[in-house]
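## retry 2 of 3
previous attempt timed out at serialization; input unchanged, resubmitting
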Amino acid sequence: MTKHAETSAKIRPELPEVIVGALVVNTEGKVLLAKGVKWADKYVIFGGHVDFREPLEDAVKREVLEEAGIGVEVIDHLGFSDHISSDGHFDGRHMVFLDYLCRYDGDDDAVKFNREYTGEYGWYTLAETENLDLGGGTPLILDNYRTYLAEHDALGGWKRCLADFENYKKRQEASQKEMGKFLVERLLNDLAPVLDNFRAAASHVPEASKGDPWVTGIGYIEKQLEDVLAQHGVRVIEVKEGEPFDPNRHEALSDESTGEDADGQDTAKTQTVVKVLQNGYMIGDKVVRAAKVSVR
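## retry succeeded, writing output
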């Protein structure tokens, strides 16, 4: 207890005393307990009175440092309770306890107890604490810690379940997109020959008949089919006469070259597109049907 807290208790003994408790846990999940002199050499946690205008978490860290000689990080609240003592060191006093869970990442060499402790201590698993002679509110604090772990484990399980569900939705969305692409590809394979026939028919319309309404109507129908495919991500592979032959996008149906240049050198690598014989189509970055071309 600090000097200010002792003075406050003497001046206003009718008021409850605010006390913070610290359950210190190491990186292995074990709790630090030590035998307390004023607790009849029973194992207890650390803690003490809060100074006037002292933030609670600052009080927790200060008490652990004063009593056990180590610096800790406050992780969370563990609970609160109150107690009106009728015997022992705290005879007749009303105390309100605010308990915190703290983490210590250092080594045992730094642990040095003040005169309120016998110096006998240990790091214990929760199962091991059941065989210790515990003093004060330490059993309640350990029970609160068990509840805390169970709740956080349940929360962790819920979060994992939620994450799994989100991953499931993402997989379903990806699967639906792939299925959609597959169906569009099927539709394209069925409609592409129809578009080829429209294009072939248009190329054979006599010059004198190209302005006839029925020819214009056929052109509109062809355009409607292309627009429907475009709405589903299908696009025509753009091919210009004179551009280099690309085996990834083009399929050569005829070769108008001799295969050799004037000096007798192989010209296969320098072939260019002479004429587009049939449109090719892509869905996204995938070539569904290569453009059929004549090369030279």
